Amino acid sequence: YVGYPPDDRDLRCETRDLESVQCSWEKGRDTNLALKSPTVYRLNGRTCDHEGTCSHETEPGEKTWTLTAQNQLGKVELQDTADLLERVHMYAPEEVTVSHVN
């Protein structure tokens, strides 16, 4: 039985509404420890519910986010620093209508 420490990489955080931040990262190789020692992900100390993505409330401005991925065999920390005003991906418009003007 062989297992591996986490080797996740490329953390990137952005916002869609300037009220919350969504951070995503590339998962590394399978640790082979899912049942015995699952990898625990924390973003700025708060547990993430999903592997590969994590969301938290935030405020606009320059921020630094630290993701920690840890299992029994090791730990990796990833950081991303950005001004959220420069990383806005707005939601697509909904219920758009077109009016004909003469």
UniProtKB/TrEMBL annotation:
Originating gene: Nfu_g_1_018366
Domain of life: Eukaryota
Taxonomic lineage: Eukaryota, Metazoa, Chordata, Craniata, Vertebrata
InterPro entries for this protein: FN3_sf, Ig-like_fold
Protein name: Uncharacterized protein
